[in-house]
Specification:
The structure is a single chain. By secondary structure, the protein is mainly beta. The protein has a domain of 163 residues: Clam (outer membrane lipoprotein receptor (LolB), chain A), CATH 2.50.20. It is 14% helix and 45% strand. The chain is globular. The N and C termini lie far apart (83 Å).
């Protein structure tokens, strides 16, 4: 005779089955919408930022500065470096352009000039780090194919996997995201080149609840063939601080 399953266990199974069914019912567009909301919560955000660059020999250097972001529908971003001394005052901004397209620009005070970053330049390395300019802003990749796939990440976490194939002309041939089923944060993203070689790995760690928003405080980008990595650590994170338009103005020459 079968033993009766305890009521608590039955409830747990029912809730779990219902949750899994609800998750599996989502299509790729709905999942990506939730990812966008999870990675840019609140009306705006500001934080202190620390860049750590590690070369193939394990040697590292640090940059420090401030990061500001405003969420949709008026998405804007500004990164200002305070140290080291030779990069003090360097700024990267992303703001709406006059034609409605986003404008990315970098201001280097030592050169006293602003460099606009066009679509064919955003794949360039940001000041020699493992991040490119597109990684630091709001992603504008156009995709010809996106799909949900099953699987676990290398750490055994049960994720929602999204595989994306960018339109021809972009520097990545395929991107694979491991998305946390609870927070919808992309905990691990793998970037493959157009020959299928794993080129970069981005991870989100140090997840903390900040003003009720699950927030990744450590973002690491590893360039696999070069054996280098760049780690961004956020501290003093604040949401909904009322950032003004003037803060995101593109610097002048």
């Amino acid at each position: 005779m079968l033993r009766r399953m305890p009521a608590l266990a039955l409830s747990f199974v029912a809730v779990t089955i219902g949750w899994v069914a609800a998750a599996s019912a989502l299509d790729v567009t709905q999942v990506l919408d939730r990812v966008r909301s999870a990675t840019a919560p609140g009306k705006d955000m500001r934080a202190t930022v620390d860049f750590e660059m590690v070369n193939a020999k394990g040697e590292s250097v640090h940059w420090k500065g401030s990061y500001y972001r405003r969420s949709a529908p008026d998405e804007r971003m500004r990164l200002v470096l305070d140290s080291p001394a030779d990069l003090h005052g360097t700024e990267v901004t992303l703001s709406p352009g006059p034609d409605g397209a986003a404008r990315q620009a970098i201001y280097v005070p030592s050169l006293r000039r602003v460099r606009d970053l066009h679509a064919d330049m955003r794949g360039e390395s940001f000041l020699g780090t493992d991040f490119n300019y597109e990684d630091l802003g709001i992603q504008h990749l156009d995709f010809q194919q996106q799909s949900l796939v099953e699987g676990k990440d290398p750490e055994g976490r049960d994720c929602i996997f999204v595989e994306s194939v960018p339109q021809s002309g972009w520097w990545y041939g395929r991107i694979r995201h491991c998305i946390d089923r609870k927070t919808y944060l992309p905990l691990r993203s793998e970037y493959y080149d157009r020959t299928g070689v794993l080129w970069k790995i981005r991870t989100l760690e140090g997840i903390k609840n900040v003003q009720s928003h699950p927030t990744a405080t450590v973002i690491t980008m590893q360039t696999v063939p070069a054996h280098t990595l760049t780690r961004i650590t956020l501290s003093d994170v604040q949401y909904d601080t009322g950032l003004t338009d003037a803060l995101f103005d593109v610097p002048h020459d």
